[in-house]
Amino acid sequence: MCSKRRKSSRSCGAKKIEVSILVDELVKITGGKYVYAGENADPAYGKDQSAYPAFPYDVLIKPGTLEEVSAIARVCTMCRVPLTVRGGGTGVTGGALPVRGGVVLSIERLNHIIDIDPDNRYAVVEAGVITSVFCDALEARGMYFPVAPGSMGSSMIGGNLAANAGSPRSCKYGSIENQVLNLEVVLAGGEVIQTGSNVHKNAAGFNLTRLLVGSQGMLGIITKAVLKIGPLPVWRKTFLAGYCNLQAACNACLQIAGSGLRACAVELITEGALRLAAPFASPGYPLLAPPVCAHLLIELEGYDFEDSQEQTEKLAGLLACTSLEDIVVGESVQERSVLWSLREKIGVAMTSHGLNYRDIDICVPPARLYAFLTATEEIGNTYGETLITFGHAMDGNMHTMLLLRKEMSALSDRGKVLTALYSTAIRLGGTITGEHGIGLLQQEFQYLQFPSGHLELLQRIKHAFDPHCILNPGKL
Ligand SMILES: Cc1cc2nc3c(=O)[nH]c(=O)nc-3n(C[C@H](O)[C@H](O)[C@H](O)COP(=O)(O)OP(=O)(O)OC[C@H]3O[C@@H](n4cnc5c(N)ncnc54)[C@H](O)[C@@H]3O)c2cc1C
């Protein structure tokens, strides 16, 4: 209920509006039950999983229908009030932070799975569906959506789309951009558009679907998505290989890709991460004794049990030539979860060791991964910083963690070492962010990525969608 109202006014472009008047307008749309202001506005909605403190905002609203979302956008544009869309709030770069205050629109009530259509190989879902809820619903029908970010228990489909989320399975399926056929989007003025059609091929017009994916709430509000689905694999196996040098591990990734084996995960864990997280891995986690100093974690999946044997032998043969010791294969759910345990515990290990960290998620062309890793080591030495690296090796998308003492904020000034890391990624033909997005956190490093004029072009596109710049202002 919006009982307590601040008697403040908000400067919004050329206009100014009393927050109480804004609240009245919004209450007309959803009813008072879903509008929160003043003391009723939960500060948690002004924060995400980045290190930034909560940003104050004026009104939180939780619409339940497309029409309500459209009406809210219309009011915000009319009043020139900033409107920041929020999914699960799991973003790590501050994308969902209402840095200019105004209205926070939580998409959480648009949480229906509307259709699962195996024959047409798509599902229609509202943007507020939790990622894992969607995946579980598909699994119950023998179907599969392969985008599985580590945050999938809390992130939402709309947030995944707006951030162009990836996951370990991206090496086979790509980021979520490769899994979307069509989007329903509310534009800043309240107009509703479809970005494409519910078809697997579409050559009509500009690819607005692709433009909206990764747009971080700056071009429109995604309300519904048509996502590609496929049959659930019938088998899945995890392989762990130990290496005593990084070059051999990186070469193995290239060989796996070149062999035609379509691995659905190829994760590299380098020495710092391995040693830090080893105490947190499940009992029986293997291949930890020196001289092993890096692990490759590979997952295969398939639809035919006969293929399983053939692919296992092919991968095992390839790894036997490159790795240090016998590889370990997990087949049952329990065996596989032991093999994934160290990789999944790296975050917990860092915080349990009393460390804070900043996650740098550069992506380089896969054949340049080794060059990036050696450069990272040199950069760490040069600046006297501890960097540990792990991640999606087959994609060239690594998480380099800049370790900080607990009392130091992940926002603390580390400009030189960050610039060195990002510049190295760019020099190697890569990008400053493979899956987390620029958000607020990486904004100051955009200039390394974009040639002159590029940001202006982005601004012009933004202007075409949102002429009064009400959608997630302060992020471009
Ligand atoms: C433990 C952990 C593990 C993670 N693992 C991964 C991983 O494996 N892969 C990965 O890619 N990321 C990962 N992330 C980062 C984060 O979870 C992803 O970026 C995720 O896609 C964000 O989804 P969300 O629903 O939480 O979005 P939010 O954080 O709420 O928002 C993210 C951005 O999208 C915009 N947005 C949200 N919903 C909409 C909408 N409906 N329409 C338009 N814009 C919208 C917001 O304004 C914001 O700019 C991880 C984060 C954590 C904390």
Secondary-structure blueprint:
Elements: E1 9-12, E2 15-18, H1 19-30, E3 35-37, E4 59-61, H2 66-79, E5 83-86, E6 103-106, E7 113-117, E8 122-126, H3 131-140, E9 143-144, H4 157-163, H5 170-173, E10 180-186, E11 192-194, H6 208-212, E12 221-228, E13 230-231, E14 235-243, H7 246-258, E15 265-269, H8 271-277, E16 294-302, H9 305-322, E17 328-330, H10 333-344, H11 346-352, E18 355-360, H12 369-383, E19 387-392, E20 397-405, H13 415-427, H14 446-449, H15 454-465
Parallel strand pairs: 4-6, 5-6
Antiparallel strand pairs: 1-2, 3-4, 7-8, 8-12, 9-13, 10-11, 10-12, 14-16, 14-17, 15-16, 15-19, 18-20, 19-20
Helix pairs in contact: 1-2, 7-9, 8-11, 12-13
The protein binds flavin-adenine dinucleotide (FAD).
Flavin-adenine dinucleotide (FAD) binds at residues 48-49, 84-92, 95-96, 107, 127, 149-151, 155-156, 158-160, 162-163, 165-167, 216-217, 221-222, 435-436, 472.
Q: What does it look like?
A:
The chain is of the alpha+beta class and 476 residues long. The protein contains 15 helices and 20 strands. The N terminus is likely disordered. It binds flavin-adenine dinucleotide.
Strand content: 15-25%
Supply Rg. Answer: 23 Å
User: What characterizes the major β-sheet?
Assistant: 7 strands, antiparallel
Query: In one word, what is the shape?
Result: globular
Give the quaternary arrangement of the chains: single chain
